[in-house]
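Appendix B. Chain record.
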Amino acid sequence: MSSRLLLRNARIGPGGPVRHVLIVDGRVAEVSAEPPPPGGPAGEPAEIVDVGGGTLLPGLWDAHVHSLQWAQARRRVDLTSARSAREAVELVVPHAGPAGLTIGYGFRDGLWPDTPHKSLLQAAAPDRAIALVSNDLHTAWLSPAALAAVGRGGHPTGVLRERDCYDAMAELPPPPREELDRWVAEATTAAAARGVVGLLDFEFADNVTDWSRRVAEHRIDVRVACSIPKDRLEEAIGRGLRTGDPVAGSEGLLEVGPVKMFVDGSLNTRTAYCEDPYPGTAARGLLETGPDELYAVMSLAARHGIHPAVHAIGDLAAGIALDAFERVGCPGRIEHAQLVRAEDFARFARPGLVAGVQPAHAPDDREVADLHWCGRTGRAFAYADLLAAGATLELGSDAPVAPLDPWDGIASAVTRTDDERPPWHPEQALPLPVALAAAGRGRTGVRPGDPADLVITESDPAALGGEDLRRMPVLGTLLGGRWTHRRSI
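Structure tokens predicted for this chain:
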């Protein structure tokens, strides 16, 4: 028997008309001014839900997530309020027990008056194993005991950046796999409660295998595009994985994503690769993958049907990524594009190229950008300029760097602030319809034939702004016509 769901009295899109929407077998079958009869051709009954004028929108995607790190960050010591290295130590020490590993997450040291060092952790909590991870995931600050646990007991400072950070964190003893999988599954349910129907996972792991196991063993409430880390590219080629292909046995929840590679680092770590040096230094950041290597890896991936996703935050890094896409001639993604040279905006308009951006980073990083990119912030987080140049935008959070909440990103894109501060470079704001489409994987409406991946909001987004938009109440979320979140309807 086919499944039938009738949503009555739903506002179709921001400022749209109130209509009745019939969903059959996981797809939108009809959008009508008058409610269709409750029974189908064979008399199948329909579940009837009156949404009371709630707004029906295409379901939202988070186009940049680190699933394991997000699931774990939800359970780590919160360091986001630390305004100095000493404050970060004071926040984590009460949680550091005599045994086991204590992990804190979320510090931003780009504006700190003092410098992180392993000696601060040792003095406050002698011989305790403590690892603190920066908000941008590019820096790890370890105590002597934690350094010893990962074979780096002789490290001079305990502050590890970029590749050293990633390697060290991967070597720390993880929770049991079964527990991690449960945490990730619970995180997908939390995401569904905010209207999320899908995410692009950039975890540094065998994501196809890991998500296949989670789908088999847990309730997963989102679709997942499973990226491939650069160091697993040849393995993925050998397995015949191709970007966009469904993953066998996943009941339509999983698809193969792009291969992730890095050109540079991050703004807060001062490793974003930039045309101008960082103030007071001769350093321009870190070039993690040079042009020739990037071209070679992208060419290999493209020949086997795997699209590249290239991390580029600084303006020189963005230029290198654009050069490589032009040389290879393949579709793919540039992730972040936080600082772009004026002459490079138009190059983002090439067919098949997506700019994956994270609008919540703009208000989060505005003071750091004003300091380290002084005089250049008019072209930083420049979403309106990218849009005007013809770029295709998709919004993400980079969770756990920002919360896995698309309304947080949408509100930041539209308002260019997230608190009482005035908008930062308001000329770079996106119109609400553009932000919603960029958060919905390009979908702009609810039409017959569409998959019933939908979100119902209590309020009309067109009537809201600022914090009201950011805190949008979600009445329900549907994934292929299945309720993954339902409240008050």
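Further analysis of this model is presented in Appendix C.
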